[in-house]
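#lab-general

N.A. 3:47 PM
ok so I finally got the sequence cleaned up, no stray characters, all 296 residues accounted for. can someone with queue access submit it? mine expired

B.Y. 3:52 PM
send it over

N.A. 3:53 PM
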Amino acid sequence: MSGIFRAELIKVLRRPMTWIALGIVLAILATVQALLIVLAFLPAPEGAGGDQAGPGQLFVDLTVLPGGLANGLNFLPGLGIFALAVVGASVAGSEFSWGTVVPLFARGADRQAVVVAKILVLALVAVIWLLATIVLAFVLSAAASLIHLGRIPLDWLDLGMARELVFGVGRSLLAMLPYLAAAVALALLFRSPAIAMAVVLGYLIVEEVGLAAFTALRTVADGGLGQLIDLVNATAIGANADRLTGLNTRALSPLAQETVIEHPYRAALILVGYTILFIIIGILSLRSRDITLRPA
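B.Y. 4:20 PM
back already:
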């Protein structure tokens, strides 16, 4: 297993797509953070209440330390998951288009171990990406703190906050694992990275739009429709991922400290269940097929 893991890790780390996609994610994060910093200088609307002068406090809290770190933790499970899913589907599906899977199994590699190794490697890549987004978010938040506060506050950094950051990395990783496992499983099932990308990215888009629509409808829906909306909200991957990333926001952002996150442990168990399900699908897709011939 360790040899297969090392081989898969080398393949992923040597792929230019892995680092190009990370660069794109970091560029988008930097753009979003910079935009929030600029928006903080917009004048408040005339007649707005409150004694706050200068930059809007909302955008200030979103960008300065420690609130800005929540953006680094949650950006990858949010918008960045699109790029990571593409990398995952490409890593698994290209084995067939390049024909590298045939000599791999000809050497006696265990098919189950290969699937598990691919997902473990992608999880490690996700952690590397997470650390990169956190570092970038810290740098940008420090710059925002200098701009808005005139100093870099570090009084928030204690053992408890360090523990929250570690837990935050774990929560963000768990929020992404079902999508990564799905990308690998579908790429192995269809022997095509393109189909896996289309299905996973399509689901992500539908989920983003659908969950927002369902949330808006829930306030007026009752009866069977209301129960259906509750069921979707309780079981959808994205809804449960949002619950975990919501814990990151609540721990780091002053704007969300009073936010109530419902059933976070249930959400974690559901995400683990989805991940295991897709791992099983990936294993079965390799076991049940003759892969001595390359697909047309």
